[in-house]
UniProtKB/TrEMBL annotation:
GO cellular component assignments: cytoplasm
SMART domains hit by this protein: PGAM
Official protein name in the record: Alpha-ribazole phosphatase
GO BP field: cobalamin biosynthetic process; fructose 2,6-bisphosphate metabolic process
Catalytic-site annotation from UniProt: H16 (tele-phosphohistidine intermediate), E89 (proton donor/acceptor)
Organism (species): Desulforamulus hydrothermalis Lam5 = DSM 18033
């Protein structure tokens, strides 16, 4: 048991800071939307919170809103940020840049089917949630094995974090939208190997409310 605990790997999962599209309720997906000034301030607040924590490695999605978040978080640690395209948000295809209301009005039946069964429905010019599950599952397995016994921070996206948490807990990922995920929230999973995880913290944003 002591040997297992010594090799426990913690993933700090951070959703990127706010963007103008977040504020406007628009789906972003693979669209490379940068952080807003508020998003940068959010990232700095979490960077202050984590500045005394030992973090061994920093990874991010290759989209700029996630990468900039990771760079801000890594700065107090003088850490290098490594990009992982597998950590990209779901590709929303033709839905990117649209609001929930606009998607429902334009893609009525398909939209309803996707919300009910995102694992199996492919968004026009986009991807299904199952494709996100496949790439994220492989990436997490590789990271947990590569960083056994270490603490690793991943700056990524709401959909990706929901998927990683859902996989760790064995949830039906067709219901993944029922997992709330705020901008610049912190979620922590502790792994004793790639297939055994404990959720230690979820969607924590206390650093955004402290004075």
């Amino acid at each position: 048991m002591k040997g297992l605990i010594a090799l426990r790997t913690r993933l700090y999962l951070v959703r990127h800071g706010e963007t103008a599209w977040n504020a406007g309720g628009k789906f972003q997906g693979h669209s490379d939307i940068p952080l807003s000034q508020r998003g940068r301030e959010q990232a700095k607040a979490l960077a202050d919170r984590l500045s005394k924590q030992k973090i061994d490695a920093f990874y991010s999605s290759d989209l700029s809103r996630a990468r900039e978040t990771a760079v801000i978080l890594a700065e107090p640690h003088q850490g290098t940020v490594y990009s992982l395209p597998a950590l990209r948000e779901i590709n929303f295809g033709r839905w990117e840049g649209l609001t929930f209301k606009e998607i429902a009005e334009t893609y009525g039946e398909l939209s309803a089917r996707w919300w009910a069964s995102p694992l199996t429905i492919t968004i026009p010019d986009g991807e299904s949630l199952q494709q996100v599950v496949d790439r994220c599952s492989k990436a997490v397995t590789e990271l947990v094995m590569r960083h056994a016994g270490e603490t690793v921070l991943l700056a990524t996206h709401g959909g990706v974090i929901r998927v990683i948490v859902g996989l760790a807990l064995g949830l039906d990922l067709n219901c993944f939208w029922q997992l709330r995920m705020d901008n610049l929230s912190l979620t922590v999973l502790a792994y004793d190997g790639p297939e055994k995880a404990v959720l230690e913290l979820y969607n924590d944003t206390c650093h955004l409310h402290e004075k």
